[in-house]
Design goal:
Elements: E1 15-19, H1 23-34, E2 38-43, H2 48-56, E3 61-65, E4 80-83, H3 88-101, E5 105-107, E6 120-124, E7 127-131, H4 138-150
Parallel strand pairs: 1-2, 1-4, 2-3, 4-5
Antiparallel strand pairs: 6-7
């Protein structure tokens, strides 16, 4: 697995295209919206979690209920893409199109096809910590973040 450098990026007005509208997509879209991104979600069906995000983010979240169409990124402005459909072949096709167009992409179903990761976030006391595991162990990451969240007075200590 290649080494990924943790980089915090200003997402204000960055355009994300997300293919898929399940629980993983909704969780990631929620974070993107919280940090100022403009998101277009393309999926044949939209779950309740994604619809709830739509009502709370008018003008920054657009949902198109249809399937991915090969070649559609040619005419669509996208700074980043998330392939989070329930079909690994569709996700791989999205990744290939992004690579051809030099658009950074994350394949939610295959970490080997990711140009960037979505870290687990710990947000408290005006601090943001992003956590990923170098071995892809999501349970270990979740346990570590739970421990971080339980710590008291992180921002109150002297440096």
């Amino acid at each position: 697995m290649p080494a990924y450098f943790p980089l915090f990026v200003n997402l204000s007005e960055k355009k994300f295209v997300v293919f898929g509208a399940g629980k993983i997509a909704a969780r990631r879209v929620s974070g993107l919206l919280r940090y100022g991104a403009a998101v277009t979600v393309i999926a044949p069906k939209t779950g309740a979690d994604m619809r709830a995000l739509l009502s709370g983010n008018p003008g920054r979240l657009l949902i198109k209920e249809r399937a991915y169409l090969p070649g559609e990124l040619k005419h669509r402005q996208a700074d980043y893409v998330l392939a989070a459909t329930d079909n690994s072949k569709v996700n791989a096709a999205i990744v290939q199109e992004c690579r051809n167009r030099k658009i950074p992409v994350n394949n939610a179903s295959d970490s080997t096809q990711c140009d960037f990761y979505f870290p687990a976030l710990v947000e408290r006391d005006q601090l943001v910590v992003g956590v990923v595991s170098t071995d892809g162990n999501h349970k270990k990451t979740a346990r570590f973040c739970k421990r971080l969240r339980s710590l008291e007075g992180l921002a109150d200590e002297e440096e």
